[in-house]
Structures are given as C-alpha cells and as structure tokens.
Design brief:
Blueprint: E1 2-6, E2 9-13, E3 15-17, E4 23-32, E5 35-38, E6 43-46, E7 49-51, E8 55-56, E9 62-69, E10 76-78
Antiparallel strand pairs: 1-2, 2-8, 3-7, 4-5, 4-6, 4-9, 9-10
Length: 82
C-alpha cells in the first residue's frame, strides 16, 4: 500500500504483484464511522503488478489492502490498516 499527501490531504493506493504464473485478486478497503467498505474495484493479476487509484485516507479514515491468492489459502486476507 502507498500513502501520499496531495494538496494537504492524505490518500492511499493499493498495490499487488504476482509472479511464477500465480493469480491473485486485490482491492482497497476504507474504514470510517465503524465500518469497512470496499472503495476500489477488484484487480486480478498474473505475472505482473497492478494498483488501484488514489482514495481519501485523511483524518478519521483508515485504509487496507485485501488479497485473495488462488494458489494459497484461497480466502480473502486483509493487511493492517494505515
């Protein structure tokens, strides 16, 4: 995940990379007012890198990346929030 200050406000971007022919899905979630919400579309990658756009992540918000690895546990796993 990347974070960046733009025009005085913080934004977050989800990132994923796949290699060795393994496929995975990724999306970015945002926490606000007690709930997690998917804010990006799902991104599917095989043998490449991809990223979401930039999403608001300023005061009162948290963001995290969620990944589904087709060759792994085959469940969605979400990282720590920033």
């Amino acid at each position: 995940m990347n974070t960046e200050k733009q025009n005085g406000n913080w934004f977050a971007q989800g990132l994923v990379q796949s290699w060795s022919g393994q496929g995975c899905y990724m999306y970015l979630e945002r926490y606000h007012n007690g709930a997690w919400t998917m804010v990006s579309s799902e991104h599917y990658v095989v043998d490449k890198a991809d990223n979401t756009g930039w999403y608001w992540d300023d005061s009162g918000y948290k963001s995290r990346v969620c990944i589904y690895n087709e060759s792994g546990s085959q469940t969605w796993k979400c990282g720590g929030a920033v």
